[in-house]
Design brief:
There is one protein chain. This protein is an alpha/beta fold. It folds into 2 domains: about 130 residues, Thiamin pyrophosphokinase, catalytic domain (Rossmann fold, 3-Layer(aba) Sandwich), CATH 3.40.50; about 70 residues, Jelly Rolls (Sandwich), CATH 2.60.120. It is built from 4 helices and 13 strands. Strands 1, 2, 3, 4, 5, 6, 7, 8, 9, 10, 11, 12 and 13 form a 13-stranded mixed sheet that branches. The longest helix is centred in the middle third of the chain and has 11 residues.
């Protein structure tokens, strides 16, 4: 466990993360590389504290340069993805904020699976964000604050069941104690009407997606 509530950064593989995303990462964040997330760390010039995974996709060069960094290695035949294992490590550290970097490129099923694991019950009482490519995703269980440019797109997607009592402020089309269903696209393509927006909900989980530039 970490001595104080802190931020854990989990690095996944896939497309390179836009460099603007790492500007707000605390300097004392605990950095966990999930397999080829170690290569992502090299691209972003981030110092890794722990490597987790089956190590079947990380480059030999990245591993060689990571000599001395603790490794939690798992067999290739396992029930959990490397990202899930890295998130579990962040939970064991008792980080109150978890930022996932990467995991956007490659296969569609991997992308959807990565989005799903961010909503795991073990993460519900933590602030979870996903920075992938240019996109910024927030997991919303009760309340969160979003930051974006006026006019920028933000979509609200219910996952795992309906999100009820949804109230938004700072968005062009507000919701006032309403429900978003998993089978509805009603929350797509809203826009920031101010630089800061807030989302509250009574029950359920939302992914607030700011897709960013393409």
């Amino acid at each position: 466990m970490l001595d104080d509530p802190t931020t854990a950064v989990v690095l996944a593989g896939g497309d390179a993360v836009h460099l603007d995303h790492i500007e707000d990462i605390p300097e004392d964040a605990y950095v966990i590389a999930a397999d080829s997330g170690l290569d992502q760390a090299r691209r972003l010039d981030l110092i890794v504290d722990l490597i987790v995974g089956d190590l079947d996709s990380v480059s030999a060069r990245a591993l060689a340069e990571a000599e001395g960094i603790p490794i939690e290695q798992y067999p290739t035949d396992k029930d959990f993805t490397d990202l899930e294992l890295a998130l579990d490590a962040a939970v064991r550290l008792d980080a109150d904020r978890i930022i996932v970097l990467g995991g956007h490129g490659g296969r569609l099923d991997h992308f959807m699976g990565n989005a799903a694991v961010l909503t795991a019950p073990a993460l519900r009482n933590r602030r979870v964000e996903w920075l992938a490519g240019y996109a910024h995703v927030y997991v919303v269980n009760r309340w969160t604050q979003l930051h974006g440019s006026v006019g920028a797109t933000v979509s609200l997607l219910a996952v795992g069941g309906p999100a009820t009592g949804v109230v938004t402020q700072g968005l062009r089309w507000p919701l006032e104690s309403e429900a978003l269903e998993t089978w509805q696209a009603r929350g797509l393509s809203n826009q920031f009407s101010s630089p800061v927006a807030t989302i509250n909900l009574t029950s359920g989980t939302l992914l607030a997606v700011i897709p960013g530039a393409i």
